[in-house]
Each structure stands twice: as structure tokens, then as C-alpha cells.
TrEMBL record:
The record marks H248 as: Interaction with DNA substrate. GO terms for molecular function: DNA binding; double-stranded DNA 3'-5' DNA exonuclease activity; endonuclease activity; metal ion binding. Keywords: Hydrolase, Magnesium, Manganese, Metal-binding. Probably binds two magnesium or manganese ions per subunit. This is Exodeoxyribonuclease-3. Its EC number is 3.1.11.2.
Length: 256
């Protein structure tokens, strides 16, 4: 079973690339982020025509997450995170797919910092950690997949110096991510590439893609029950180089 996290950076603009990926690679489950589309404008007809059922949590112009499953319909378990009742951002969607719990996550960017956006990012990580603890207590195979907007280690970026002041690499951001992993979640890409140097995102600016100036911010964290079934992990990097592609590449794990 191949499970993918893919920040599409606008599903309307990237729909041809998404359908292309679903057709060519045929992953079993796909967690999408940054839909930038309302619930009403999500292209469900195109997704279903490609052979996928879907659950989505949209938001006009911003954010938005979805879970797609090949040949079956995901069953929604939860949308949004507890702990901040006034938070209207569409950033968390949790589904069941044939006994596997899968969450699509779009963690706040947090820039500029210091400031309210960075404070919101840190609160959001804490809220995610609370939900993650509850999932671990269920003792089920679970995957927390998404764009975490956190560069966990120095070897997860092309340049520590270039990213030193960015919210993605601050000690508080890293600390929140590491505390999440320390609960018992396995960082699948780190397991596969323990020395780092693997990117999932390349900015559109300054020739980042052409110069391979990227970093790793898309992660798939596995509960112990899912980690026991882990066989491989990687990045479908070539899709980042296609015409009008997202600035993220599909990032994946395979489970027995």
C-alpha cells in the first residue's frame, strides 16, 4: 500500500498535474494540502473519474486538506483540532481507510516571526500533539501525513544559513516536531534516509528547483502499528519538474 502526502498549492491550478499523478503512479491513499478551494468547488467529479473516493475540508482561497483513496471511499473521523474554538482554518482532516487511520495535515507556516502567526503555529503543534496522543492510545495503525512547515534537522535543508531566521527552522518549531515524534511516532523519511539530504519542497523563486535548493517539510509520521508494516519511503521528485507543477513533490511511504 502506497500512501502519499502532496501539497498541491491550489487544486484548481494543479488539477492536470494531480490527475496525471493519480493516473501514472496509482497510489492507494493520497493526502492533499493547500487546496485553496471551498468545499463547493472541490473537483470531486475529476477525482472520481480518476478512480478515487474523497473526503475534503475546504476553505476559499486558503488552506484546505483532503484524503483520497483508490477504489474506495474514505470514512471521515474528525475535521479540525480541539483546543481553539475560534480557529476556522481548514488544516486537519482524519479518515479511516480499511482500518488504517490517515490524517492530512497542513501545519501553519508561522512567518513572520516573532508575532501572532508564529504563536499560532506553536499552539497548533501543541493541539496536534494532543490529538496524536489520543490516536496512539487507540493502538491502531495510523499515519499523520502532511506539510508540517518544519525543517527538523540541519541536514534537511540545502542551507542552514539561508533558513536560519525562518519560522520553519526555529528551535520552538523543531522542538514541537521532535516532541511529537518522541510520543512514539516514526519519521518514515528519516528512517529511509538517516543522513538527510532529501528535499520535498523547492521554492518558485531564485531558481531553487534548477539549483536543487530545497528542504524537507513534508512528513509522514507512523504509529508503532503502522511502522511495523513500513517497507519503504521516498519522494517522487520528478513531478516537481513538470510544467506548472506544485512547489512540493509527492512524498510517500509503502506499508505491507
Amino acid at each position: 500500500m502506497k500512501i502519499v502526502t502532496y501539497n498541491v498549492n491550489g487544486i484548481k491550478a494543479r488539477l492536470p498535474r494531480l490527475i496525471e499523478y493519480l493516473s501514472e503512479d496509482a497510489p492507494d491513499i493520497v493526502c492533499l494540502q493547500e487546496l485553496k478551494a471551498s468545499d463547493e468547488t472541490f473537483p470531486i467529479a475529476d477525482v472520481e473519474a480518476a478512480g478515487y473516493g474523497a473526503v475534503w475540508h475546504g476553505q476559499k482561497s486558503w488552506n484546505g486538506v483532503a484524503v483520497l483513496a483508490k477504489g474506495r471511499q474514505p470514512v471521515e473521523r474528525q475535521r479540525g483540532l480541539a483546543g481553539e474554538p475560534d480557529d476556522e482554518h481548514s488544516r486537519y482532516l482524519e479518515c479511516d481507510v480499511d482500518g488504517l487511520v490517515v490524517a492530512s495535515i497542513y501545519l501553519p507556516n508561522g512567518n513572520p516571526r516573532p508575532g501572532p502567526k508564529f504563536d499560532y503555529k506553536l499552539r497548533w503543534i501543541d493541539r496536534l500533539a494532543a490529538r496524536a496522543r489520543d490516536l496512539l492510545a487507540e493502538e491502531v495503525p495510523a499515519v499523520l501525513a502532511g506539510d508540517y512547515n518544519v525543517i527538523p534537522n540541519d541536514d534537511d535543508t540545502y542551507s542552514v544559513r539561508a533558513m536560519a531566521e525562518d519560522a520553519l527552522m526555529q528551535p520552538e518549531s523543531r522542538g514541537g516536531y521532535r516532541a511529537l515524534v518522541a510520543q512514539g511516532w516514526a519519521d518514515s523519511l528519516r528512517w529511509r534516509f538517516p543522513t538527510g539530504g532529501v528535499w520535498t519542497f523547492w521554492d518558485y523563486q531564485a531558481g531553487a528547483w534548477q539549483r536543487d535548493h530545497g528542504f524537507r517539510i513534508d512528513h509522514l509520521l507512523l504509529s508503532p502499528q503502522a511502522a511495523d508494516r513500513l517497507t519503504d519511503a521516498g519522494v517522487d521528485k520528478a513531478y516537481r519538474g513538470r510544467e506548472k507543477a506544485s512547489d512540493h513533490a509527492p512524498t510517500w511511504v509503502t506499508l505491507r
